Amino acid sequence: MTDLKRELGIFSCTMLVAGNMIGIGIFITAGRIYQTLPHPAFILSAWVLGGLLSLSGGLVYSELSTRFPRAGGGYVYIEQAFGPFLGFLAGFSSSMVTIPGTAAFLAIGVTKYAGLTDPLIAKTVAVAAILLISFVNDRGVLKGAWLQDSFMVLKLALIFGLIFAALTIGKGSLSNFTVTLPSPRPLIFALPLALIPIMYTYSGWDATVYVAGEVKDPSRTLPFSLFYGCLMVMLIYLALACIYIYALPVNAAPFVTPDNKSRIVTVASSALFGETAGKVIGALVAVSVMGCLSATILTGPRVIFAMARNGLLPKAAGEVSEAFATPSKAIWFHGIWACVLAVTGTFDQLLDYVTVPMIFFAAINGLSLLVLRGKNRSDPGTVPYRCFGYPILPVLFILGMGWIVINTAVQNPKDSLWGLVIVSGGIPAYFFLRR
User: Residues 6 or more apart from 211 whose CB is under 8 A from it?
Assistant: First the structure.
């Protein structure tokens, strides 16, 4: 049976983590966050907390990925810790909900920032983007990585250029940071609701664990890429959050109106530099979001591939292309399902659809580390990276993720639990496929 090749190095892996994190979230979620926490100090604190949770998750996943340096990500760790049933549900969530849902969300986001208003044209472009990037990734993992690296360099140039221009020639005001408007709800309840879009924006910090079977020197490359990728993104997000506040007060009407709350970077850029600059930056953001879509399509099919190799999905999805050494059929299954979600789902529906299941299974993966440490389990011949701050840091990570899920389920049950309802559909699917 043909196996995947280990071809990805430190640079591509770090760019994959950062590229998978810096997608559309930082450009569209600020309006929703400002409505929940309309105070600069609360907003920046929420971004810091979300970044620390992601950084903690990166350290937890660093040990998990070096214990099991193979394709599949969280599905592999949960299956090793808790058995095939819970592992299947984690993999089902990743392959049917969170990752293809994210790809669909990003593809629709590309059309929004490209200024496509006709629904049919927008859906067509979204589907075309998913299929085109799936085709490139099917041609070889290095081609997918080169595409992702190129998008990431362009994305970083855009972000750093925006930050530099805002600080030097932008027409903002430092007085926007001194707003005294209190939060409309107790912070203990409002903060977890704000963390839902924030954690979506930070999602992707585990990107390289999905392609661990194609990483060179995984015991060194995986921890490096996860930690420094997360740290870099956290600092970039804080800088952008400050630029948004510098541009306009957090309670300003342009930020929180329904038409603009998902176009924050365009609104802020227009306030800083004028209307023309705002439109140009909006178009550049569309290109940036394509980079995150590329990273998502590079990682997502590896979960389907790993589950098929373990007999939990049809065998064909676990085949490796002899010509390109890629999980070709898994790539196309993922791409087609993402197209279905892009055509049938709305922007806000897809955001809620993917985020709560993602956070829930991230907490389960934190538990997996505690269990696997107790069992002392890892792949033969691996030398695990030891998680910094164990066991305190993994426990804090688990509690933080659990707090977000439980509080959101209580405060906003209809939207937040929809993704988990879809995941529960994996229960009959598991017993059917096992039989």
Answer: 8, 13, 16, 71, 141, 298, 299, 302
